[in-house]
Amino acid sequence: MTSSPESQEPRELPESQFLASTSDGLLPSASAKIPGQRSLPKRIAVISFEAIVTLVPLLFIILAFCANSLDGKQLSKWGEKLQQLAKYGSTIFPILFASVLGMAIRSIARWRAERGTTLRELELLMGSQTLGSTISTQISTLGFSNDFLLGFGLLVFWLLSPIAAQACLRLVDINQVTTESPGNITYLDMENSTIFMTGDDKTGVRDIYNTLYDFSLLSPPVYRTESRDLWGNIKVPMLESFNSSRIEEDGWISVDAYGIDNNISYVSLIGIPVIGLPKLNLSDEWTNKSLSVLMTIFSLETNYFVFDCSNISIVDPEHSQQENSSGYLYNRTSPSPNTTFVLDTSTPLDRVSTPGLQPRYITFVSNYGVPEDEDDTVVYKSAMTNCSVTQSYVELWVECYYDLCETTGIRKSTLLHKPPEYTALDNQGHMSFIAKELTHRGIDITTINTDALWSGTLTEYFLNDPSKVGSFFEYSRDISQLPRDVFASRFGLLFNTYWNAVLSPNILVDSKTKDDIAHIVVTDPNFDYSDLFKTTNTNTTIELTVDRYVRKVWAMATLMATSCLLLTTAIIGTVLRWKCVGPNVLGYVSTLLMEPGGCTLDGPERTRAFADTKVGLVAVRDDKEGRVVFSLLPKLPATTEEAVDK
């Protein structure tokens, strides 16, 4: 039943007209059930719980500070644990936020009620225990009232909970950070090294030379397509093989060994050894996890021989070598034993660099036999060509991934050098040395009786067809049919290979020697190892790319601000809760029950005292009007109770 429209004030009704009343004896005094004073252990427990709840936001402030300390640091075990805590924190934060803020709002409402406030404000505070209840209370109950700013502030405060939870999840991220530092490395000086090797050094050079042949036997195309040699040294692309239209700014030509230049021509099968590349201790678990890229970038100067040969002609092997070449070497330097080809020069051996100097000419003669099918006889022939040789000076742009280096750019050297016509073969008897040593007979590659065929050297087989070197059935070494540019390219490859080998045989193939020298360079920069080989230095840029922790400023600021605001609110709520003198009755159903003589117990204590008491909404009436009130249910006879239950 509802009250009539005329009734504006509640009227006191006779006690006999209530369906249920306190006179029924259903609601005895709560003081008889629960003492008014709390025991000391209970008070300590309550205080401890309130202190813990109040200080909970401090944990997230500490978490934000710890995350901030990770900024710029490498991956670590501590960082991994902190990230795990942040993940758990993103789940726990909304729960703790609701607990702390809910308790604080109830304390504020209680404190305001004791000092007098409007019903609207109390309803707004007590109805803002969650984000959803805050919205519904503001819209459905109060609307745009005078307390709109309070409701809006509470709504914004509750909205901080999911935002701060997401911020907790994103406190730190892992990004790749690249740092650059200067360095210095050492590499072989191709221009100033001496090549006069004797004894074991000669044997070592020949072993290197033959090893490269063995390598070409296993994978013929690799001799010209790999950017590094067998020992990891940097191979030099031939600048003259690139199209001039590819020249970029400052004369550079980009080299993509595994892309558009996958068929690149290199000047030698042997590369340039580099000493002093930075190394990191990757045995540490977290250093290994953090490191993404270690790049060493530098440029180096080098040079090589370029050959331009005439068409190959067939000459009579009966004629003397002197007549064929008119050279300077044949009568003064005996060819190596058992060789089938010779090198000679028609240019004076020792020359000085002068203006207008003509390039040196080298004569190549290969003696071979051609079997005749008709009578099994062998016809002996000689193939001869003359090649001019010049020196090409280039600058390489090298990028090393850890200790794996390759050329990514090349251009003509911008430094001052002697004319290209003046080469390293023009002084100190270099031409005589290499003409004799290069023609040394290599290991035989066939098991058939080759005496009748005048078996040749590996050099000749390679010049004729690199893909068939070592074949027992393709033993032809007749180079007379080769185009001049093909012969010049292959001959230049072998000539530069042997030249590089004799410059530094002990450092080319021995990684331990490189490491030992690198250690000496670091510990004793003044150490003179010129008796081993000539070197030069170059400045490098060392790029270290590692995975590092990077703080998210917005996330850290959001979590810090929300946690500080929540901590402040929790402290205020705790202080106001202890300043309240009346019982805590707001929001408890038990406070709606009337008790004879009154009661000063808190709502939770009253609820425990009358937990099993039956209550409900009942109708109250007088002669003119009726009301619906919250009251105790009367004690009815058993039959009546059963009827009610039914």
Can you walk through the features of this model?
By secondary structure, the chain is an alpha+beta fold. The chain has helices at residues 40-69, 77-115, 119-126, 131-142, 148-169, 200-218, 222-225, 285-290, 321-325, 430-437, 458-464, 484-503, 505-508, 511-523, 553-579, 603-609, 638-645; strands spanning 172-188, 253-254, 274-275, 291-309, 313-315, 341-345, 360-371, 378-401, 404-412, 535-551, 615-621, 626-632. Strands 1, 2, 3, 4, 5, 6, 7, 8, 9 and 10 form a ten-stranded antiparallel beta sheet that branches. A two-stranded antiparallel sheet has the order 11-12. A hairpin with a 2-residue loop joins strand 8 (378-401) and strand 9. Helix 4 (131-142) runs antiparallel to helix 5 (148-169). The protein is rod-shaped and about 150 Å long. The model is unreliable at 1-26, 217-223, 331-337 and 443-453 (pLDDT under 50).
